[in-house]
Structures are given as structure tokens and as C-alpha cells.
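thought: user wants a sequence for this fold. calling inverse folding tool.
action: design(structure=
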């Protein structure tokens, strides 16, 4: 009986230690998510302004730009998967990996070869474990993304798109990331980045009436300058959305872990009390039995 009490005490102590860790991680995630949401809100005006400018140029010019031109034959498609560098975030990484692989299978069914670009250690580790090749990888900058990372990703994607599928590049680009909806919901999002279709942009005023524009020096030069900035802003927005969604998923997972630890502590405390009561009852019965034996011996 004493050994059983020691086991329950050890389990209670272990659950209490786990609760301290998960509670601390929950508080850290809660503080980080506020900063991540502030960065998403701060980047929105710039993203809307760039989207509006690109929409205006695309609407009021009839030029055939490489970034807006649909390829006659799409042989290779880039799939950029945004995961996280750290775990302990519930289904955050598994749902985005599943979304990316489902998109890849859909592309294969359409006769297009998927080319993977991975962001985050979890995606890199997943693909390495299953020996799936990837074209490029970026790690170490998913918790607090920097714009320089978005510039690197955008440059690699633009270079591959410029080469084309026939020359070892890609013919279209898709972004797959978790979009922050609320503290409880993080939704997988798939966006075709290139060839650019401005109407796909969530922040664009698709029904706005634009004034008449005159482009200097010409519309093609303006698009050459605007579209790379637009691509960078979309990639950076995906990084920020993924970061905010990850912190929300971590907070939710750590809160669930803390609640489970509380339940374990309650259950083991009840079992310990039952075992202690059984031990006391047994001791009382032994004392009473001994007293009866002494009385009967006299």
C-alpha cells in the first residue's frame, strides 16, 4: 500500500511539473501572438496600396507582361509550403503539410510536376524523412519573420518562373500557408501567386472605379517595378499570417495540455486519497484485531 502511495505522489509531482512548463509556454505564446497580429495589421496598408497600384496598371494597360501571361502548357508548378521551426502547436504543421501534398497530387493528376519550396524546419524534416526532393529551403525565421526572408523567397520564385518549366524552372507558383482567422481557428490557405491574376488578391478593391492614368515612362516599365514588390508583399504577408497562426495554435495546444495536467492531478489525488484511506482502514482493522486477540487471551 505504501508503494502505491509513492507511485501516485510521483505521478502527481510529474503532472504538476508538466503543468508549470505548459502554462509558461501558453503565456509566452499569448504575448507573442499580440506582436504577430500587430505586424499583420501594420503590413496590410502597404499590401493594399501595392495591390491597388498593380490593379490600376493591369486594368488600364493592354501590355503582355511575362508575370501576367498564362503559359500555353504548364509542365512544372512550384508549391511553397509555410510551416514552423518549432513544434508543440497541435495540428498546425500536419494540416498545412497535408494541404500541400493534396495540392501536389491534384497537380500530378492534371499532368503537372510539383516542385516544392519549403519554409520552416518542420516541413524540411518531413520531406527529408520521406525522401521527397525540394528545390529550396528556408529555416530559422518563422517565429518573427523578417522582410529579408520574403525578399529571398520572392527572388528564388521569380528566377524559377523566369526560366520556365522547359528550362528547369516553373510555369506557375502556389503558396500554401495557415491563415490566422481567430485565436481558435487557423485555416489552411492555397493561393496561386503567378501567373498573376490581380482579382485573386484578397485586399484588392476589385469593384473600384479607377481614374484615368498616364504611365511614365511606360506601362511595361511600371509593371516591371511594381510586380516584384507585389510578389514580395504577398510572400511576406504569408509569412506573417503563418507566424500569427502558429502562435495561436501553440497557445491553444498548451492550454489544452495544462487542462489535461489539471485533470491528471485531480484524478491521481483522488486515487492517492483512496489508497491512503484504505491503508488507514487496514491499520485500524489490524489494531482492533490485535486488541480483540489480547482481550480474548486474558
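)
observation: tool returned 298 residues.
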Amino acid at each position: 500500500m505504501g508503494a502505491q502511495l509513492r507511485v501516485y505522489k510521483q505521478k502527481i509531482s510529474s503532472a504538476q511539473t508538466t503543468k508549470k512548463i505548459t502554462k509558461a509556454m501558453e503565456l509566452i505564446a499569448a504575448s507573442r501572438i499580440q506582436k504577430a497580429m500587430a505586424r499583420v495589421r501594420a503590413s496590410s496598408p502597404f499590401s493594399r496600396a501595392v495591390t491597388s497600384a498593380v490593379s490600376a496598371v493591369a486594368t488600364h494597360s493592354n501590355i503582355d507582361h511575362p508575370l501576367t501571361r498564362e503559359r500555353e502548357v504548364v509542365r512544372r508548378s512550384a508549391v511553397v509550403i509555410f510551416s514552423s521551426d518549432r513544434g508543440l502547436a497541435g495540428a498546425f504543421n500536419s494540416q498545412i503539410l497535408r494541404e500541400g501534398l493534396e495540392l501536389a497530387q491534384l497537380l500530378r493528376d492534371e499532368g503537372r510536376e510539383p516542385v516544392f519550396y519549403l519554409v520552416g524546419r518542420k516541413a524540411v524534416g518531413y520531406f527529408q524523412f520521406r525522401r521527397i526532393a525540394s528545390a529550396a529551403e528556408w529555416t530559422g525565421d518563422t517565429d518573427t519573420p523578417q522582410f529579408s526572408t520574403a525578399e529571398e523567397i520572392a527572388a528564388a520564385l521569380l528566377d524559377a518562373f523566369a526560366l520556365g518549366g522547359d528550362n528547369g524552372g516553373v510555369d506557375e507558383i502556389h503558396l500554401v500557408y495557415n491563415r490566422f482567422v481567430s485565436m481558435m481557428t487557423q485555416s489552411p490557405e492555397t493561393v496561386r501567386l503567378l501567373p498573376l491574376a490581380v482579382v485573386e488578391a484578397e485586399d484588392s478593391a476589385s469593384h473600384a472605379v479607377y481614374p484615368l492614368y498616364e504611365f511614365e515612362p511606360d506601362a511595361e516599365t511600371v509593371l516591371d517595378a511594381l510586380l516584384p514588390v507585389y510578389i514580395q508583399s504577398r510572400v511576406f504577408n504569408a509569412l506573417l499570417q503563418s507566424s500569427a497562426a502558429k502562435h495561436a495554435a501553440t497557445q491553444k495546444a498548451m492550454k489544452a495540455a495544462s487542462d489535461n495536467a489539471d485533470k491528471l492531478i485531480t484524478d491521481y489525488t483522488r486515487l492517492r486519497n483512496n489508497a491512503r484511506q484504505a491503508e488507514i482502514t487496514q491499520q485500524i482493522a489490524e489494531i482492533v484485531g490485535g486488541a480483540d486477540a489480547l482481550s480474548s487471551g486474558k
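thought: summarizing for user.
answer: Here is the designed sequence. Residues 198-206 have pLDDT under 50 and may be disordered.
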